[in-house]
Structures are given as C-alpha cells and as structure tokens.
C-alpha cells in the first residue's frame, strides 16, 4: 500500500512503564524535586530521547494506589555513566492537578529526608 508523500506518520505511542517503589530510601533516590511539578527517575536500559512521551504507572511505598502519570523524558542517564549511576530516564510530571497531588503525596512520604544531602539517582 502506497502512502502519499504529504502524509505524516502517526506519532509514536508513548511507552508504558510500571514502577513500584517499595522503600522510602528508593523513593528518595528516584524522586526529582528540581522539576516544578515533580518527577521520577526510572531505571531502564531502553533508549529514550528528551521530550519523549512516557506513561508511568507509579506505586509508592506503603500505598496500594497506582498513580498514572503521562509525563515526558526530561533527564537521561546513559549506560556507563560516571559515578556508576544506573542507566535510566527522568520523567517530568505534567502541570496538572493530579501531578500536584502526587508531588505532595511523595513529599509527604519523604518528610524530613527531603532536606538530606544523600546522593540520588539524578543529581
């Protein structure tokens, strides 16, 4: 079947990633407070580009709810990164009410450890 030259291909569908964070320490290491709406680091060896759409189903420690996030890749840690960091991507949460609630939930779960200077997966 021939496609007319003027036809544009459909944008790729966002990949879907399920991320279950079981411990507070892992949540601290994965959370990205630098993004205004919050974000999360997802360890993966899959190749992504900045700006790629990613749909994340996020589960937090001690919380049975799964939080759906339609985010964008805003950070990439390549394989063999300096400091033995895990390869993966940082997903920026969208600017919407669900993301504000998720950010508040994560920061509430982290409590005082938000001010820690322990290393994270991102900075």
- Per CATH, which architecture? Beta Barrel
Let me know the largest β-sheet.
5 strands, mixed
CATH topology name, in short, is Thrombin, subunit H
Whole-angstrom Rg: 16 Å
The helix-and-strand class reads alpha+beta
Per DSSP, the total helix count is: 2
Tally the structural domains: 1
Q: What is the number of strand segments?
A: 5
Helix fraction?
10-25%
Approximately what portion of the residues adopt beta-strand conformation?
25-35%
Gap between N and C termini, in Å?
49 Å
Assigned CATH class: Mainly Beta
What number is the mean pLDDT?
A: 84
Order of helices and strands: EHEEEEH
Overall body shape? globular
**CATH superfamily descriptor:** predicted glycosyltransferase like domains
Strand order across the largest sheet: 1-3-4-5-2
Q: Which spans have pLDDT < 50 for at least 5 consecutive residues?
A: none
Protein name: Pilus assembly protein PilZ
GO molecular function: cyclic-di-GMP binding
InterPro entries: PilZ_domain (IPR009875)
Pfam families: PilZ
């Amino acid at each position: 079947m021939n496609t007319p030259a003027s036809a544009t291909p459909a944008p790729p569908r966002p990949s879907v990633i399920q991320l279950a964070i079981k411990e507070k320490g892992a949540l601290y290491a994965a959370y990205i407070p630098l993004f205004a709406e919050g974000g999360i680091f997802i360890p993966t060896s899959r190749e992504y580009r900045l700006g790629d759409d990613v749909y994340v189903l996020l589960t937090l420690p001690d919380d049975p709810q799964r939080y759906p996030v339609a985010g964008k890749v805003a950070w990439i840690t390549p394989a063999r990164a300096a400091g033995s960091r895990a390869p993966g991507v940082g997903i920026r949460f969208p600017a919407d009410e669900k993301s504000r609630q998720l950010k508040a939930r994560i920061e509430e779960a982290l409590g005082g450890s938000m001010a820690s200077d322990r290393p994270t997966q991102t900075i």
